[in-house]
Queue: 4 jobs
Job 1
Amino acid sequence: MYACLFVPDFPVQAALLLEPRDTRELLRRSPMAILDGPGNLPKVVALNDVARNTGFEVGMTKLQAETCGGVLLRKRSPDHEDAAQAALLECAEAFSPRVESTCHGTVILDLAGTEKLFGSLETVGCKITVSARQIGLHLRIAVAANPDTAMYAALGFAGITIISNGDETKMLAPLPVGILPASPELLEVLESWGIRTFKALASLPSIALTERLGQQGLELQKLAQGRTSRPLRPVEPIPDFFGTHEFEDPIETLELLVFDLNRVLKEICDRLVAESLATNELRLTLSLEVRQIRDGKEGEQYQHNWKLPVPTQDRHMLFTLLRLDLERNTFSAPIKKLTIEAVPIKPRMAQGNLFAPPSPEAEKLETTLARVRGVVGSMDAEGISCVGSPMIPNTHNPGAFAVQSFSSAVEHQAQPAIVPTLTLRIFRPALETSVELTGEAPHFVRLWKKHRRVLAASGPWCSSGNWWNETTAWAREEWDVALKAFEGVVYCRLYLDRIRKRWFVEGVFD
Amino acid sequence: MAYVELHARSAFTFLEGASLPESLAYTAAQLQSPAMALLDRDGVYGAPRFHMAAKEYGIKAHIGAEISIAESGNLPVLVESRAGYQNLCRLITTAKLRTKKNAIATSRFDELHDAAEGLICLTGDENGPLAHALQKGGMEEGRRVIRQLISIFGSANVYVELQRHANRFQESRNQAAISLAKERGLPLMATNGVRYATPTEREIADVFTCLKNKCRLENAGRLLSENSQRYVRSSREMEYLFADLPEAIANTTEVSSRLDFTLEQLGYEFPRYLVPGGETMDSFLRKRTWEGARHRYQPITERVRQQLDKELALIEKLKLAGYFLIVWDLIRFCQKNGILVQGRGSAANSAVCYSLSITAVDPIALNLLFERFLSEERGEWPDIDLDLASGDEREKVIQYVYERYGKRGAAMTANVCTYRGGSASREMGKVLGFDEDTLASVSKIVGTWEWRDPNDTGEKQFRSAGLDVAHPQIAKYLDLCQRVQNLPRHLSQHSGGMVICQGQLDSVVPLEPATMADRVVLQWDKDDCADLGLIKVDLLGLGMMAVLKDSIELIRNHYHEEVDLAHLPQDSPDIYDTICKADTIGMFQIESRAQMASLPRNHPTLFKDLTAQVALIRPGPITGNMTNPYLKRRQGKEPVTYEHPLLIPVLESTYGVPIYQEQLLVMAKVCANITGGQAEELRRSMSHKRSRERMQAMDEMLLNGMMNNGIPRKNSENILNQIKSFALYGFPQSHAASFALIAYASAFLKVRYLAAFTAALLNNQPMGFYHPATIVKDAQRHGLRVKPADVTRSEWKCSLESDDQGQIVLRVGLSYVRGLQQLAGEAVILQRLKAPFCSVEELARRVPQLSRANLAMLARIGALNNLVDDRKMHRRDALWQVECATHRVGPLLEGISEARVSSPLSPMNIEERLVSDYHGTGLTVGPHPMAYRRDTLTAMGIIAAEQLKKSMDGAWVTVAGHVIVRQRPGTAKGMIFLTLEDETGNANVIVSPQFYDENRMVVVRERFVRISGKVQNQENVVHLMARSIAPLAVSAVTASSHDFH
């Protein structure tokens, strides 16, 4: 037998889980709605019964819900929902080792062989209900001989429903066909036939139904009759791709570290190979010994993540990546413990494109990039990646640029030929400055701690954009100027940020 | 040194300009610019409005255009002379006519050669030919293009254009252009490539760019403009920008002085009518008029003779004989081809038009004012509108005009579609990235009623749709919606206005293909044409004319009687009895709520009463508070008084109350001694383009005139108010009479031949005030039997057939089946004629044009119930078979399926049948949805519409029904009129503005409602004043209402 645990109004219950128990029970009796959608127009996506009975509806905008008043509005949080689903799974796992996480708010568990532990099916149902209430979830439970029947019964009936083997069709009869996984077109056909309940669908002649609606119709009928049989897809414990080594004495040399590093990495890679998995993300954590304890800190950690362009099981490549990174770092204290975690993923099975331009192997490219990062660093002061292909985003904003990761699979697009004129060395970030004006043109500019006279100026060159969004709107007025300097003339580019009303030196011409 | 902007683009370069031509002209005038040139892309769409506005603001309007050249960008050209203008129009026309609608029409350099005379060319902006050449092949290619332009236009007529929009790349291009100009000794010209009047309108330009490229602002990137520099700049700003090139500024003034041409010198001429040898157009017209008069007036009295002589003399004097003959020629074409036609409008004031059979109303018998039609002083073309049956017959007449005057000699006038509440909110929302549901709810709620409540602001409407206007992005959304209002969106063709021209129309205005095949449309709308003195003939499609024509045919075929509309029995009491009872659903002009409310009080018994009735319910008389006094005086409840004895002869026939436009003009004539022409000028001064100064001048003239006639000041002011209140929105008597003729004919046919009239009405939808569902229910209440659509009996259109008792019944046509294409419907009929169908499977096999959805829809509405001879299927039997017939089974299942005619499905219940009927055909021939709930409704204390009519004044009652009409007329001070329909008839409900504010969603959205309130029963005109409203769960039918916005 299978039991399905269904959490009605799951987003609402998930949001309530965070509340303290007393508040939660109080809130459960008040109208509550969950909002989701873009920031400028959030809409109600879920409600509890109290809100529904008060006249609130899914699809209302936040303003409409607020105007009606008296409803508690919460923003939808995928994290909260994940946490609630985890809690639901945990609750189910207390009663059976085989639990399927069907979807958010629904789990199905295999009750075979649990009678001796928990008693009759009714008793199990009650115990699950009590257990779920303790963690703050109000459930509908249905028990049946197959997972689908249990699921539809839980969706359709409140409380605890036990369906004996052979009673499926009779018990499911009053349920609406709308809850079946049918396409809108098929549901429209059923509606036009006047087939609105499981009973009506179950009683149609099967061959005639198949003639008209094909295999999909037959499948739906079986579901409506409670005659399906499918294996449960239990949640499997995620294999552990995690390795750690605690040094007897904190170590200070890289040679000692890489020895154990290599060993731990080998164990993880062996496990990946055994599970026919690979990794595309590797996380390294080094716990450091702190000799002086300051501000209550007992230790420090060094952490680094590698995101790989392609999944790999190659221990040597991963080891090279780690070693290159460690080589360019110095640590403030000896290392006490090392931890490596690999995020598992299915290995790459596809063959490379026969017609793509030749490019280095992804693994080799990644190693090379790691070497480059070792030289230039990985991020600049503005948080922009230092290694990758520079890219000009689609905007008129002259200062905007982005860096996209190198990828061997990136298609090389023909870029318009850029005719070199003058080279502008850009300061990133731009140097804020003060400018004295004559008319609207700069007359004196402060650069490198000195006021410098403008010998010649060309401008203003104006640009602006994103006027529809207060936060991202920008407007600037550029001037190319020749400044008098001790050693001669300096040519540079200034700009006035018209929104912040501040002047900057953007760069210097060679 | 003055600067003249010679390269401005308006919003008539659709989605590439952001300001109206008027706003550009206004801004230029504000900046004290002496002139400006409007250069829209491939057209002179905005030129008339620009010209009129410039005239008003005292600046000179230069005309030009940007010509799209294949692979070379847009070449700006300025019109120097009339020859140049004609060349430009022909050039654009040639390119447009060989290109499909909405595609970019490009000209070739060789065509420019032929059209260069009288044009000055600029080398263009970043999209111009020089910029294209420089980008493509550098200086060398630039030189080649310059040489090419010089060879086409001559070196004196090529100016190297420079624009400065604070852009480095543009400046480097400018430097290249300057050096090329120096090489060839060409003059420079500074322009600002204006795309909007003020910098803030750059936002609208960006929004339009997104709409054009079908993207959102967020991802439009470099498609958007880089800055806001393309606005109308002052001379000072331009001089500062071009301080290094003063000659580029000076040349703008010089070129401006060379541009002699304005739209005043359009050179339009109406075509001459070809007359037989030895005749002039005047003599020919005279002969045709007297011929006609002999037929129309029997006998020709002295008064008729004098009137015709007077009219013919004036026509001759104004050289309008050709115009009359051309219209006469159209009428003759219609008569020869059996096409129903009738002139309307002020033409009905002319005895000549009546004699030529252009109109059907005798102006002499009705004492109509000829000056309203034609006046010597007015110096304007007369306006003749012809009503034709809409559809194929009207198209025949239009094609006859093209055939006779050539594709380039005649064209339909355009209709400029502008951004309004709904379209603005939808498109602005799309650009800002709002989802479809939100856009739908906003466009639904954004008020587009005819009445605009001053408190019903955009902000309030947005709030009603659930949008928080405090959020900056929503505030921006609202702001854009408001700013984009009235900007042109696209050009469509006017419903019937045609302009014809002596010589070629394409030298007066560019022509382009319309979306409809074989139609050519000109680039100006009817107001522009009128402003520039282009004469148009309106060939208007009048749905009721088609109904009358179709009715006559049905009567001939099924009643075996011949009805001659020209000789209908006049003043039949049974017809007027029906009209007096306001039992007028489907009748022309007298079926609206307001008409129905006044009919019992007006109690028309003669044709002239009906004419008055048509004129009475118009915005003019209503807002001028003339309707009620007229009705009261007619009923004898109020004494007939006059503001002054001078008005007695003018207003005697209408109880001292002016209801016709002519009466106002005569009032002005007799009281203030103004001439006929001045009276007409008065009417025009109060038209929709009214100008405050002109109005004031007219007021003074009238008041002085009245004072001179000894009319006391107070009476003078009353008379003036009467004149002003409805000069625009009143009907001329002639027009009302023309309409009353059609109204009477429609009433006659409905009363005497209900089946034929109803079938014709249903076959010419959409038209009138009511949905087909209401028309059918009304006909059923009058005893007509209506049968449902049936594939074994129905024609494509609604038809008549005889039942077993020999009575004529109406059969709903297959055209009413939702989603069924005419081709498929006609294929069903064709196959049925060959051999009857025996099963759904056979129908599906023999008519492959029927899709699965078509068959399912036919089954759902019961149109397949009679398909099998031996037994009547129910709808679900048919649906069951449809699914089998449209899904071919494999060989495995073939032969083992059950008998095809039976199904395991239950028949539809009443509610399901109703839902299917409304969903599938928009109507039901069975009982009204409310009829099924009558017992419950009665138990709830809800009375039927029939009972409401008998309720006492002041009684408190509750009615319920399907909302069939929602109306908020501009004349009713914000009141909303709802019409509820139940099985017994219609109930009229009035909703006050405050009540509407409190119950907006229910009033606007609900299909079935229950309304309680106080009865207002005045002289058998019964309304319910709504005090509470609630949705009513009657049925899930999707019947729609007719909401007048």
Job 2
Amino acid sequence: MHELGAEIARDYAGREPVLVASLKASVVFVADLSRAIPIVHALDFVELAGYGSAGMGGHQQIRVLKDLDLDVRGRDVVLVEDVVDTGLTLHYLVRTLELRRPASVAAVTLLDRPYRRLVDDLPVRYVGFVVPDELFVGYGFDVDERYRELPDLHLLNL
Amino acid sequence: MELELPVFRAYRGTEPPRFASPAELECAKVLDYYDVPWQYEPRTFVLEEDAEGRVTEAFTPDFYLPEQDLYVEITAMKQSLVTRKNRKLRKLRERYPDVRIKLFYRRDLERLAQHFRLDLAS
């Protein structure tokens, strides 16, 4: 965490970036990451409806459940993800944010599975761990909203 | 069995797609959901020809993502049954080294299903 924080602080020194965390799984990560970045930065959250979430009905299209509170025009945005897998969610977020004309958009992810990418042109600049194709719970990661509260990451054996 | 199709927004093909399996349909829905342009089986790659130039082996990947310039082959088959498909992909990569293709295995689909809560039971 300290390595990621120091790297981000070095790259954004004097620029006051906005950390934008996507709810919900990245909440614990961004709480720790924010405290590990020793420069002034803002914090905001966005939440997208997951594919197949209850009550969407009919043919589905991604939608924003919680939008940003901050105006990111001209700001340096660092998207904070729990995991980048196929890249579909991050790809959508980046395209949506770029419509708001930020100065730059980069992403930091706690876990990365680059071998599962369907979308490659992603600004993933900071990676915590490249992980095998296993499921994790704890540290914000859930299965049906359970186990987020576990303080550490655990491998889920199904 | 004919699969019931929704109206796709990100589909970039000309003919309505005719999916071979529910897994293909669900993957199409995921791509559409995230507004990633996709085509279904737009190109067949010749893998082998006989001495007269007749095609003896060919391969048609399930999806093509034009913005990514990436072909995606979906297989819901068990791991033990994908050897033949793997061999075809190896041949394709040898013969068309500039073509980018990814094979999504059954376990990949299961992970995707867990992540996106899809129904891949059938």
Job 3
Amino acid sequence: MSQLDTPSSRLGVSSFPEEGKNSVNIAAVSIGDDIDLHERRGVIHTAFRHVINCKVNGSLVSIVTPAIGSGPNNIVVDSVDLTLFTGLEQNICDLNSIDFSNARVFDSRLVIDKYGTSEFLSNLNLLERIVINEASPLSCAFMLDERRGSFFITPFETNVRDCLRNSYSKFIDGSIEEVGLLKGAGFGLTPQGDDLISGTLVAIYVYGLMKQLPTEGLRHEIYNRARTSNEISSSFLLYASLGRVYEKFKDLLDALAHDRARIHDAASRFLGIGETSGADVSTAFILSMKKFYKGGLPW
Amino acid sequence: MVAKGAIRKGEYFDSVTLMLVARDASKIEGVLDAAIVMGTAQNKSILEMSEMLLDEFKNTSDNDLIIAVKAKDEATAVSGLKKTEELLEKSRQKTTDSSEYMPKSIESAFKVLPGANMVIISVAGKYAAEEAMKALQHDLHVMIFSDNVPKDKTLEVKKLGREKGLLVMGPDCGTAIINGAPLGFANVVNRGDIGIVSAAGTGLQEVSSIISNEGEGISQGIGTGGIDMKKEFGGLSFLTGLEALIADPQTKIITLISKPPHPEVLERIGEVLKTNKKPVVAAFLGADPALVKSIGAIPASSLEEAALLSVSLSKGISMEQFNKEIEESENKLKELAKDLAKQLQPEQKYVRGLFQGGTLAYETQVILKDMIGDINSNVPLDPKLRLADSWRSVGHTVVDLGEDEFTVGRPHPQIDFSLRNKRILEEARDKSVAIIYLDVVIGHGTNLNPGEELAPVIAEAKKVGNSLIIVSVTGTDRDPQNKSKIVKMYKDAGAVVLERNASASRLTGYILQKLGGK
Amino acid sequence: MKTLDLFASELKVINVGLTSFKESLEQEGFKVVQVDWRPPAGGDEEVMEALRKLMGK
């Protein structure tokens, strides 16, 4: 599933299943465009109330509630609490317990069609102010306004902050090796360093589209340097490197590109992801885009 | 300085938990630093910088969780680590109950629950106003349970609510019943055609419970918080609630509850009532009945009377019939008082009222003042009668245990009985005490075991002293606590139990009068 | 009238604060979502002051 081709060739309505043999207890609202439903049984990796991560046929598939939203490898179901999902049995996750008949396919590809540079930049500035104001205390938003650095209090927290700041600024100045020092760094199940890299990867993709520059090789290299044995994080990184984004980030990018009035709403929703993930990805995206606009890609 | 640590393999906690627990851990006495992070190479490098990289961490994988604690000495580090792991376990239990992606703001909550129409706010006062403003800006009605909200912010919020035609129930609003839903401390009552606007939390609980127990029901119970009827807030919340009930097709009878409103506020209410055609019963406890009549409302001198009047209006019972019933029950009360007074010794003279509910403490003072004279209190009707020390009763005393001096750092007395239980036994040992008076307000949000937690104390009090113990229970049979079981437990323990605060207060007055109380 | 709209609709609550209020509502069959609320600036007064200045409030 890592070799992505055009999504529609993999999924068509005809590939959606008939009624599974197990009792269906929830219905899918959307299914990510990188999911192949030919394989239905997987092993549970992690389970929370709003997210169940499964390994299906070697790839990560996440069953999520609408609060999380769609993504390239997300199946959004119409439930608000996945602890009641009967498709879970010990360690096995059975997708046959989901009714896919009314699911729409989520197109995770980022397409930035037309775009005035000045408009995008000023929208980016608006997003920056929102992130500075609304991001949670221990997020990387201190890189946008250093006064936020005082949110980091314990010696460990200040060390995390300084490492992230130093590594990220070296990376964005052109040291691609710094990815190795960013990855896995910081708080969270998906470490903050990984989220900074993801945000940067998406920025590279967007910039490449806007300037019609080839960036595939660069993104590929950064991904290879960034991947770890943390499968959840690596999955996010992979999609980011391919310009495939999750619904809330997509909405935000869409608003940035086309609709200033929607930016605040979309940003607030994206900032609600994880404790700091949304904020960290946004911070990196903002810093990278501004850097690229000034002097092109630094690597 | 010593560092201790642990590794968790294959366990997953959401990120919020890890950060919070680490912060909490760093606040443990003697702990200098704490970290709970994934065991990645880079995090280990940061741990090393922080002098918390232990040998046992060296082989962790990216998927392992490292817990590290640094403290001033070995003993503290070991206990700090243990405490941290306990915190983590505790939060995991919460985590299985709570979601990884719980919305972090009202805005995102609105996306999770589209069509949301009410926000309940019970965070610390200094933050509550901002949350309320956000809610109003999203066109949501608001209930603010929090107190200690700064005055200027309170006014701002109430004004915005009024402008937008949205309910602002609070600040300091403990109770509301909207569309039959119990908000805050509230009872499960029948739905019906009596609508209530109340600036008194336990007042709303008492009135709605009595109405429900009498077989009628509530359309809406709109709380406004105790401060709304003061001059500076102009009854802004009250007026919106009143206008809503006047317009509401489900509401046929309107009941108003408050301590006497500021004259300007009373006038405003009068203005609104000018175009109203529905009967309005007003329990402005302690207010001049003539004033109440002048604004077009039927005065009730107690919460009980307000409830019964409203019920009669709803049932279509005539005033004569109503008065007849009241007289009959009053006579029974006087008979009971006579019997109970016989149980007392000559030196027993005083009542000690220990209250969970502020409004009920107020109501009891209003009723007893006319029957037995001066009552000392931490919330006195007359400032001259303020207790020098809220923790020591003098003569006739009524204490509101919900006041600040009792609640700093503790849960509300409707939840935590321990303070009052202690006080009950102190009063029971005082030979000059004739009656210990207790209110027990049940319902959602309050102590789930009021029977088990109070009945033994009543029994003990009856053993160590000779006081009568009179209990007024506010609530319904549909409340989460089992009301009839509770009443029986108190009776079995030796208490006299009534289900109306005003009746219980009058009973107290009659008993004390028999002893030459005034 | 917005209050009449409220009375005529299904009550759907956003709870910010004490979770017991959410539990009570759920027990009685009402829809409620809990906000995972944190004080801005982690509740630290000094930091909050800094944040206010930052936001120009």
Job 4
Amino acid sequence: MMIRLFAVTLACWAVVLAEPPGAWAATVISGTVKNKAGQSLSGLALLEKGEIHNNVWDRGTLVDANGRFRIEVPDGGQYGLHVYSSGYIYSPKAVRVESGKALEVSVVLVPEPTRANDPMIKRVGFFPWEERRGKVTFVKLDVADPNDDLGPQVLAFNAAAGRAYALQPPRRVRDLKANFPQGVYQLELDTSGGSVNPREWHFVVADHQCNTTDVLSFPHEPRPPRVIRP
Amino acid sequence: MSAPRVALGVVLALAASVLARVAVVSGGDHTSLAAAGERWWATSPDPANPVACATCHHDPAETRGWAASFPKFKPLPPPHARVMTLLQANAEAVRRHYRLVDPRPVATAITAYLTTHGAGVPLSPGVTVGQPVFPPRLRALGESVARGRRLYASECAACHEAPAIAAAIADFPRMRGQRMESLEDFLDQHAPRRPLAWDSPAMADVVSYLVATRADRAAKETP
């Protein structure tokens, strides 16, 4: 009996030791966000899974007042890291992190010289679907763009779940390089497990020329954007 | 004033701005071509949208290795992602950000600027120094080189040995008389049997092959 117990224990240890180093460690993309003067910036850091600009949005996090962010990802590999801060041109960066490792990224943002070309979020709404009340909620975003060159980056971020989403345009656009329509974008949420808490939701929109809205957080009341002097 | 008239006015103003700057280059040599490219790099032609290349890519150390890293896979939104030459990538960026209908002159000048700025940096097609290496992108470049090798063998090799042409491509972009000329322009005009459009994937394949040949030779000559 003792011999059998010893053998089982030994086998367990063999399995444990056979795991590659770092297999239990988290895979993390973290970093700092600053402007050129070295000032820390808060905002949003969102990830596309796989090749950058593929519009497959995955996870994200809020960038805190110290300009720090940390996103834990389930797998190593390639990601598109997009960092947004109100009044700054957003920064896209292709990154690669190995499983079980931490990747530290420094992001430097540049202020937008004018806000006249920025897309605008005119309204945000959360609408339970009448026919399936309590089961489905639509998040709707009314978006305009003075240059009429919106791209697929009409984005929502749920801070509680750490999930990022691209909202569906008012009509289907097959080519991600095409100009996306202005109008009401929406996201269908399965709310059978609980209702939507608007406080958890943040929104940002960027056009093809990198003109970017402010990050819109609760109470989701858009304000006129201001130019940040460098 | 109606919206179409305003739009027409903006287009004409931008066109005049482009022509004025290109005219400055037409009297010069490679140095003035690169200088014109640097001006385009630093200044948008659209005063209403002053974001220029240098607004975001403001660190000269960051951009110094760019020219040496081309051709490479550019991650444009699918299905447009593909291997591109430096000129093609610049044309893509200039078309989108400067909203130029014909991006080629400006892209050629910017290519000259980035090539001059990166002079002396060892060739590293597909890899930018200080940036992560992405294996799928390198695979795409390898496939482009293989396609380019086949295309070169069928269309070019009868008259031109690849090593000699590979060495000569370092002279582009250049001024030819009063006209600026990129490598892609030259090949576009030169292919007698089969047209090779300057912005086509096939052009990127041929240039990928030639640059790979040049990089191999440089690596062998390095002590």
